[in-house]
Structure formats: C-alpha cells, structure tokens
Amino acid sequence: IIMKNDVLKAIHYRRSVFQASFTEEEVSKEDILSILEAANAAPTHKRTQPWRFVIFRKEGLERLGTELSRIYKSVTPAEKYTEATEITMGKKATQSNVAIAIVVNYTGEVPEWEELACTAAAVENMWLAAHSLNIGGYWA
Question: What angle do CA 100, 106, 111 make, to 5 degrees?
Fold first, then answer.
C-alpha cells in the first residue's frame, strides 16, 4: 500500500493502545482540547453536532470507576455476574490519565442513525487527532 500523505498514513497506522501499554505521562489540557476540536470538525447533517463529551481526570477517574462497577453489578444478570469483573470494571477507569465519555444527544431533527453515525465520525476524528499527538487509547 502506498501512503501518499500524512492523513492516509494516520488512517492506516492508527491502532488501539490498551491499558497494559499506557504510560504515566500526563495528557495536557491543550492536547485534550485539540482532540475535542478535531471531534467538532466531523460532518453532521443540519449541523446538529449531537455528540457530547465528558472528561474524567484524577479524582474523576476514581468516581467513574466506582460508577462503572455499580452499573455492571446492577444490570448484569445473576448467572453472568462475577465479582472479579465488577472489580475489573472499576479498575480499568483508573489505569489512564484521562477518559473521555462519549454521549449522543439525539435532537430529533434528523433520523437517530444519522446522529449516531456522525458521532462515530467525531470519534474517528478524535482517534486520528490523538494518534497525531502520540497519545494512545482505545474505544471501550
């Protein structure tokens, strides 16, 4: 495959980076804002920009982990529930320096699938922006 420019290279070489490979290096506020600005550049029908992002850092990651564990326990059928998974759900949130929750705010102006699709496009822009900044992550 011939990669003719940096954008094509980024699309081709971007990969998920999982917690085991995370570093302790801080992700700067400037880099987070750059990633969010890239998301906001995604195409939307009628400019609805239905995506919303919630940034978790430091103590917020602890609260996120606690909430993810609570949700897992409350929605998982008893026959599928394991305490180990509940603990893992909470622990994963604290293994990074920042987490970005992605929310679709359906406007009703266009079909829901379109707003979901453009939110996914915003997430892809986030991936490519993070990659360009040498920041790893994954979609979970």
Answer: 125
Q: What is the mean pLDDT of the chain?
A: 93
Residue 19's φ and ψ, nearest 5 degrees, are: -50, -40
- The pTM of the full predicted model, rounded to 2 decimals, is 0.86
pLDDT at 3: 78
Q: Which residues pair with 51 in a beta bridge?
A: 104
Three-state DSSP class for 57? Answer: strand
**Tokens standing for 66?**
């606690």
The answer to whether 110 and 46 have CB atoms below 8 angstroms apart is yes
Question: 37-46, pLDDT tens digit by residue?
Answer: 999 999 998 9
Q: Which three-class secondary structure state does DSSP give residue 60?
A: helix
CA distance 131 to 109: 33
Give the relative orientation of helices 59-75 and 83-93 as an angle to the nearest 10 degrees.
150
How far is Cα of residue 140 from the mean position of the Cα atoms in its chain?
Answer: 7
